[in-house]
Structure formats: structure tokens, C-alpha cells
Amino acid sequence: MMTAIKVLVVLTSHSDLGNTGEKTGFWIEEFAAPYYVLADAGVQITIASPNGGQPPIDPKSELADFQTEATRRFDKDATLKEKLAHTVKLADVKVSDYDAVFYPGGHGPLWDLATDKNSIALIEGFYNSKKPIAFVCHAPGALVNAKLPNGDPLVKGKEVTGFSNTEEEAVQLTKVVPFLLEDEMKKLGGHYSKGADWGSYVKIDGLLITGQNPSSSEEAAKALLKML
């Protein structure tokens, strides 16, 4: 019998949208769509976050406009909601227990995962162990401090995408976020490219998979599944 493929899903624990007084967190579709792509293929999934427990959900991602087949399925999925309420702490996660890692977005990761030492060590650990790493929308922000063994930024010279400046302008958060993902990727030497705003667009460079926005989350998960 084949042993099941094990994938770690890392969510943000950050809930404040800068100093706007509004809330953020992870974006439901970017978690639900990849989760079901992987789970339906028999992948065993562990969910982790910096603080453990229930990660904050971006309230905007619960609005009617952003509902998809995956989010509607999530709404009715009591088992998954229960699992989500008890995420494991990133500090307790070992790279050796998993075959790959997937980071859903939402604005939260720009604040915590970008600088979280455990997250950075995990990303570097997966990558250096030749295991695929996938990030969607704002989650590539978790890569900004990840380095290769030679000290170069992990994204340097790689084809990458992520939430674009024009998309950030469209949601009017350009001045709120700690950094603009597109600018940061270019600064680090990543070959950033993007598709149409809000359309699915995924870049694959070796073990690194990045998706541009919520619509790209399912395609990014499928790319990861193919790699596994």
C-alpha cells in the first residue's frame, strides 16, 4: 500500500489590518480550494499557524461576492472547521514529517509570516530538503526573508508571482500593508510576472510554486499535487 502524501498547510495568526481598525486574516477561498484539491486526492493535511488554535479569517472573504464552490463546501464542513480551530503551532512542526508545504494568503501573512522565524526556517528546510513549497496571493510574502544556504534570497533569479500592485490598489490597501509584494519580489531579485488582475496565474520554478491571487489557489494546488 502506498503511504499517504502528507502536506503541511500554514495559515497566518495575524488579525489586525494595519492601524485601520479593520480585521484581516487568511482568505477562505485560498485555504478551502487547495485543501479540497489535496484532500480529495487522498493527501493527509496538517494545518499549522504561528500561534496555534483558530487562525483569524478575513471577514471580507466571507462576503457573498467572494463565494465559490470550495467556500460553500467549507461552510457546511463541520469536520474541517473543527480541525481549523485546533491548528498546531509552527514551532512544533518538523519538515521531516511532510512531503510539501502550502501557504494560503489573505493580508495576514504580510505581518506575521514574513518575519516569523519558525516559518522562515520551515520554508528553508522544505526547500533545502528538495520538497515543494507553494504560496498563493499574499502568502509569497512569507518568502521575503527566506534564504538559500549561500545567503541569497530564496526567490532571487526565480520566476515568481503574487498579489500585484494593481490588485492592491484596487482593494485600496497600498498604504496600509507593510510592503507591496510585487515590489519586494523584484527588490529581492525575483523575476516577478503577473497575469490579468483577479485571473488565475501560477508560476512554477523548480520546487517553488506561486499563485497571484485567490483565483489562482486551485491551480496552484493542482500544480503541487502534480509535483507530488
Descriptors:
228 residues; alpha/beta; two-stranded parallel sheet
Task: Please describe what this structure looks like.
This protein is an alpha/beta fold and 228 residues long. The protein is 29% helix and 14% strand. Strands 3-2-1-4-5-9-8 form a 7-stranded mixed β-sheet, sandwiched between helices. α1 crosses α2 and α1 runs parallel beside α8. The longest helix is centred in the first third of the chain and has 13 residues. The chain is globular. The two termini are 17 Å apart. 48% of the residues are buried.
Largest sheet: spatial strand order: 3-2-1-4-5-9-8
Distance between the termini: 17 Å
Amount of helix: 25-40%
Mean pLDDT: 97
Q: SSE order in H/E notation?
A: EHEHHEEHHEEHHEEEH
Unreliable runs: none
Number of helices: 8
Shape: globular
* Main sheet summary: 7 strands, mixed
By helix and strand content, what is the structural category?
alpha/beta
The fraction of residues in strands falls at 5-15%
Number of strands: 9
- The whole-angstrom Rg is 16 Å
Kindly summarize this structure in a few lines:
The protein is built from eight helices and nine strands. The chain is an alpha/beta fold.
Indicate the topology.
Elements lengths: L5 E5 L17 H13 L3 E6 L19 H7 L2 H7 L3 E2 L10 E4 L4 H4 L5 H12 L4 E4 L22 E2 L4 H6 L10 H7 L3 E2 L9 E4 L2 E4 L5 H11 L1
Parallel strand pairs: 1-2, 1-4, 2-3, 4-5, 5-9, 6-7
Antiparallel strand pairs: 8-9
